[in-house]
Amino acid sequence: xxxxxxxxxxxxxxxxxxxxxxxxxxxxxxxxxxxxxxxxxxxxxxxxxxxxxxxxxxxxxxxxxxxxxxxxxxxxxxxxxxxxxxxxxxxxxxxxxxxxxxxxxxxxxxxxxxxxxxxxxxxxxxxxxxxxxxxxxxxxxxxxxxxxxxxxxxxxxxxxxxxxxxxxxxxxxxxxxxxxxxxxxxxxxxxxxxxxxxxxxxxxxxxxxxxxxxxxxxxxxxxxxxxxxxxxxxxxxxxxxxxxxxxxxxxxxxxxxxxxxxxxxxxxxxxxxxxxxxxxxxxxxxxxxxxxxxxxxxxxxxxxxxxxxxxxxxxxxxxxxxxxxxxxxxxxxxxxxxxxxxxxxxxxxxxxxxxxxxxxxxxxxxxxxxxxxxxxxxxxxxxxxxxxxxxxxxxxxxxxxxxxxxxxxxxxxxxxxxxxxxxxxxxxxxxxxxxxxxxxxxxxxxxxxxxxxxxxxxxxxxxxxxxxxxxxxxxxxxxxxxxxxxxxxxxxxxxxxxxxxxxxxxxxxxxxxxxxxxxxxxxxxxxxxxxxxxxxxxxxxxxxxxxxxxxxxxxxxxxxxx
Length: 562
Ligand code: G3I
Ligand code: 9MR
Hints:
single chain, alpha+beta, Immunoglobulin-like, 5-stranded mixed sheet, 14 strands, globular, binds ligand G3I, binds ligand 9MR
């Protein structure tokens, strides 16, 4: 009988590239040697010595690292420690993250709104059409003379935001920006990178095809009469845990917001650059995107401070809206991002005027409400094509990106799990796994600028974190690894009658805030995670969390296989 694996040996449960660093974190391990063997065999193929014991004050555990980077032979292995414990099996293989990269992109297909998913592409998860969104009501908070309350608007397609069935422009902003950036950073690799979706046989890269599904919805969120953009398309209250085709509640577009307009302006400007490369497949779409972008920007200039505050709206008009708020109250970074994308796309000085004063500001890690660095990444990507004025500022932007990455990698090798996900409170928020993934993206940006491989290795360490080298022992992507989430807060996974969750989704991750009030085994930052459906604060899925996972896994494949 095969010996049962311990979840106290934490490692990337998929495995490692032959030439890359290979680390496992052993909790409560004895000192001494460890070995690598084939699963079920005791013959040592590699022998090493575990590192010194490190106390992790956050969790109270003692951790020792096993480093087997020197072992490069492809194959399937387990790690055995001095106490005779055995890890989950893992691979040493080129393209070791290709499967998870594909699945992470495919997750967006499963989230598609207003379409049936046939078995040919969705397999066991095929489902009939839900939420057509062709007859959406203008909510009283969004009423204008041209579109009074109750006007019907058609805004089909898009992706379900998360475990819920609503569509939020602000959260689509960073999601689309990240996926577009992946294409712009790795165009060659993306051209051959395929998911199996209805569009796979057309001439567009699948990453672009997938983003088009959401882009077309977003374009319909702009009010053609004034250029403003509705904050979200939503039910009044969350749907129950039921399949999309069974839902019947009315859907609304709610108040326009400056955040939505600016995020919309940023991604349509970026879309326009990308779609210009495909004039024959998508005639006119690039130009439409740029026009939409400019109109949204102009609306924002005329309405620079329209914040979305759900509580205030609910005091004034009915029906009350209780779905996700995405209520960013500081729009400085959205201005910078939109200005950067419009500037790179058009070279017009008016955008640079807005952008230039902000370029003195340091780069912060991106999240749905902090998008300034996305603008910096874009300036970095197009540095050689910038107009002269911006060329002169380029060294400052470069400095900001490298400073962000330097901060992330500072001392990461001394961390108990040897990743950039230090136990700092800023890391362990709602959606902490997206923090880890976005750190990985920032590190890859720094690697692309500097060629310094240490940044790449630190980014890979964060991918190892997400796939198992963390204090919970989970591989946080559904359907991958030996111990993955089984019960995400995800209506599609919960209501479909299939035991396994939909594959390729990154769950939110440890969040000591535990705002869902569910039962958690641990409350410390690094382990406040529970694989329960009820746990929307630690175990939901979301498009903005999967996007940096797609970026990180695809970028690793593109770079490691070069
Ligand atoms: O901004 C403060 C920060 O100053 C403070 O240090 C920190 C400490 O906890 O909290 C920060 O605010 C947090 C905010 O996100 C900004 O990051 C709140 O605590 C936290 O509750 C809030 O969580 C958001 C959550 O919605 C609740 O509003 C998540 O970021 C956001 O991803 C999540 O998004 C939901 C949608 O509303 C609905 N659809 C599902 C989606 C995913 O769960
Ligand atoms: O399912 C909702 C999830 O998408 C949100 O992130 C979360 C926080 O806004 O709310 C979830 O919905 C819950 C609601 O807030 C309270 N009643 C139970 C709902 C879960 O079914």
